[in-house]
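queue> pop job 88
queue> type: inverse folding (structure -> sequence)
queue> payload:
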């Protein structure tokens, strides 16, 4: 019995406000769907953020409808929760999943009402529990769900939990809602969303009563050492790069989805395969300090064509800025250049601090569902003390 774990497709997201980047999100998702149809797993679990917003643009909805229709034709059911991006902002607002559900009927299961479903095939039963994203202030309700899920799952052998949360120490997202011990116990595979990097770890979340002997004898024994390897916690990651710092992880771990074989008696981390797709290339972590660096970059960019042009984010010596801008106009889909100042020691330190603050600010804006590029642009302009800008904001935004 095989299932696919996929997450965080962010359909409708327009990085740098570019049509191409909106299309890249759709392409990455479609590549995954084609690959899933090739593999023909028994079912798919989706850990949320299918859409960038709970009111997705028509192109995003259309892409999702076409893809899920294909899965339905191949008789592959989907189990999906809402992420922080596509959970409706108010209870009275409809979920974008309603449209998919209306089309797929019993081939799409959500977890907003019922917190678990049973997948049955050839006398085998798989318990699938799930709960929509819960913000830090709503974890009491989440823990109630987990209590119920743990209770209801007791008599099943094969169990999957779907969640969309950041868990302490697994993420570099500055905030987190859970500790790993808050998750319901006894599951084989914990299918995570929200963290866009790929993470795959063995955990020890056996039922407490099974472990009482051990913990009584040796309290100081760190329980992460007594895992029997049969419980796996995974974030399959986003399917495209939603922030440029994800590119490093993409180069290291790849992007796409996980394929999990659950019915083996000796289930462990080796039953999880990474299936990779190709994303848009980024050129980051580079500094163009001299003609030689410049030539190397020209050569690198010659490997791309009009449809594969990369996004370039790099530092440049002041005297090369003009020619680099020209090069970027022709050879990059989008670029962000920062001047490398003479006094490298202090400025590189400041650049680093600025980049980190930038990333945190962007994450904050994304979570608040603001238009990231627009608000950040406005913020940078405001920092310059542009009086015309203040007039503009006063006239158009502050009524
Ligand atoms: Mn996400």
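queue> result:
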């Amino acid at each position: 019995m095989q299932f696919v774990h996929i997450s965080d497709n962010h359909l409708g997201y327009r990085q740098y406000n570019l049509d191409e980047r909106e299309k890249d999100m759709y392409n990455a998702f479609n590549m995954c769907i084609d690959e899933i149809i090739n593999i023909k797993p028994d079912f798919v679990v989706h850990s949320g953020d299918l859409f960038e917003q709970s009111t997705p643009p028509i192109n995003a909805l259309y892409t999702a409808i076409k893809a899920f229709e294909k899965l339905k034709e191949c008789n592959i059911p989907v189990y999906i929760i809402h992420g922080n991006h596509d959970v409706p902002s108010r209870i009275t607002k409809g979920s974008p999943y309603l449209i998919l559900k209306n089309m797929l009927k019993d081939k799409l299961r959500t977890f907003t009402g019922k917190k678990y479903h049973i997948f049955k095939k050839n006398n085998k039963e798989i318990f699938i529990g799930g709960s929509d994203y819960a913000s830090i202030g709503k974890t009491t309700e989440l823990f109630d769900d987990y209590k119920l899920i743990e209770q209801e799952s007791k008599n099943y052998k094969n169990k999957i939990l779907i969640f969309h949360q950041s868990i302490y120490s697994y993420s570099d997202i500055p905030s987190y809602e859970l500790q790993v011990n808050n998750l319901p116990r006894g599951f084989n595979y914990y299918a995570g969303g929200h963290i866009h990097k790929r993470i795959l770890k063995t955990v020890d979340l056996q039922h407490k009563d099974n472990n009482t002997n051990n913990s009584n004898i040796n309290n100081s024994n760190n329980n992460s050492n007594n895992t029997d390897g049969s419980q796996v916690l995974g974030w399959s990651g986003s399917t495209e790069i939603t922030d440029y710092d994800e590119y490093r992880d993409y180069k290291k771990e790849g992007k796409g989805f996980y394929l999990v074989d659950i019915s083996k008696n000796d289930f462990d981390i080796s039953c999880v395969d990474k299936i990779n797709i190709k994303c848009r290339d980024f050129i980051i972590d580079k500094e163009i300090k001299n003609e030689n660096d410049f030539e190397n970059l020209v050569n690198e960019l010659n490997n791309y064509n009009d449809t594969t042009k990369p996004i370039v984010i790099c530092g440049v010596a002041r005297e090369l800025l003009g020619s680099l801008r020209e090069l970027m106009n022709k050879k990059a889909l989008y670029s962000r250049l920062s001047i490398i100042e003479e006094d490298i020691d202090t400025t590189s330190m400041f650049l680093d601090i600025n980049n980190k603050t930038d990333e945190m600010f962007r994450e904050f804006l994304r979570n608040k569902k603001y238009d990231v590029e627009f608000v950040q642009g406005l913020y940078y302009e405001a920092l310059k003390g542009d009086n015309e800008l203040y007039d503009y904001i006063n006239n158009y935004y502050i009524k």
